[in-house]
Amino acid sequence: MKSNLNPRHLSAAFALISATMVAGGWAADQPQWGQQYTRNMVSGETGLPESFDPQTGENVKWSASLGTESYATPVVGGGRVIIGANNGEPRDPRHQGDRGVLLCLNEEDGSICWQLVVPKFQGDVYLDWPGAGICSPATVEGDRVYAVTNRAEVVCLDLAGMANGNGGPYVDEGRHLVLPGEKPMEVGQLDADILWLFDMRAEVGMHPHDAAHSSILIDGPYLYLNTGNGVDNTHRKVRAPEAPSLIVLDKTSGKLVAQDGERIGPRIFHCTWSSPALADVAGRRLVFFGGGDGVCYAFDALTPSSTPGPAKTLPRAWRFDCDPTAPKEDVSQYLRNRRVSPSNIKSMPVFHENRVYLTVGGDIWWGKNEAWLQCIDATQTGNITETGLLWSYALNRHCCSTPSIHNGLVFTADCGRTVHCVDASTGEACWTHEANGEIWGSTLVADGRVYVGTRRGDLWVFAAAREKRVLGCVELDSPTASTPVAANGVLYMATLRRLWAFQKPSP
Is 18 a domain residue? Predict the structure, then answer.
């Protein structure tokens, strides 16, 4: 059939289609874990598939192997999908054995662009848990990727990889690919291009535990991140009690700019796995941080300074003890006590309308079963433990999930296999749902739905509403500890073995 459209009409038609896709929420990358700054697990994406099935291929755009164990959450930016993985299925025959891997995939088809391969710590398995790979979600800004490796290194990577040559100032990638003392490896086109590297063990004296988990927050010229300081292999001693829990780096050079001065180390019950959030509160720019001691801190954010100098101490705006009656001294004596123990914070604090929402409670492996979803008044100053709590909602069991706040509701999940919907103003329960599997990841609200995965290998879908409505439950290929991500009309879900990209077919 002969077309009646001339090229000028076709151009106008495509422009209209493109504008419609942008207006419909189909043109947004997801370059960090959660919303920029606030960390709210809510996406403006629309047009996501209502149903999908990995078994039949229904609404499956592509899937990519992550090896045998992936605990990371993907991020999307600049046409690339970045996610941590392991080397259970080597993509390059030169790299054999247990390694941490950060994969850069093509957003369109899931093909590999490059990978950062990092040898594991040797000797003490509690420094770098076998098979766990790289667990930290990356952060993308422009043509740069910022991430924390399994060896507690903060790295700045070129999003283009080695395709545009080996950028600097770091040019020793060949040595970084092997263990200390081994012959450097020849760098190939499939290897990542490291622009700078900050070794947190060497530079701030922290002691990693199990697996580094940190999502880097960018604010202007600065990178804010938790160090991952934790206990040793006995679980009874913090090897680096004086090491900071929160640090700030210059994003251009990787130099240390500031750190907290709270001396959280002696009170860490297990490790420091919570990443920071940031917001403007009553004319004051604050960084919110969940400590490994069960305390939520707010610090004054740095203002850009042209005068270089020694690392500063972040000024504290307020502190809120989420579990004030819990033990504070000699915390290791409460190991394996499921009734009485200190609390810790594994999720990220989320800022929304002058409030901070976070989950807190006993440690999954070593602490009491109690856990709570709490709401804190972010406008106060000083020690606000007695005055800052707006409400507290009891969860079923330990919790790792970062909450999602949307339309006056808070959605979260816990290790007691339960998904919760709570009134954001009052903390009253709206509904709960038994998910038949432990939940380590967080809820995602997108396109009027709540998505959350389980350690049983299910992806649950609910209506993002005050009344409970289950929209579906999809059986995945393997368990998941990841958080769903929506970007550019695609829903991403990582399991231990695969990354799935779900999308409606193009009209």
Answer: no
